[in-house]
Write a structure and sequence with these properties.
By secondary structure, the protein is mostly helical. 46% of the residues lie in helices and 0% in strands. It is globular and about 45 Å long.
Length: 90
């Protein structure tokens, strides 16, 4: 009998995981607050990999994060003027 997916703690198909509560809160804040990005020096973050594919992925994700963080001011303006409910708004 061949098993395709054995029991595991988290997805073996995903590349990124949020395991601790602190990681989840940080992700939540960074998704909705431009002020939180002032605590992150993403532009000077570097990664040196012996695997060129990992280096390409890192560079692409870094560029995407920089672009995302620069656009958050407009998102904050939108959310300030539109009624929204979030999971922590109880």
């Amino acid at each position: 009998m061949v098993k395709k997916d054995e029991p595991h703690f988290s997805s073996i198909k995903a590349h990124n995981h949020l395991i601790h509560f602190e990681e989840y809160v940080a992700l939540y804040l960074l998704n909705f607050s431009a002020a939180a990005w002032q605590c992150v020096d993403i532009k000077n973050t570097t990664y040196q990999s012996k695997n060129p594919q990992n280096q390409i992925i890192f560079n692409a994700e870094k560029t995407a994060l920089i672009n995302y963080s620069q656009g958050l001011k407009e998102v904050e303006k939108l959310f300030a003027n539109v009624s929204t409910l979030m999971m922590f708004d109880v």
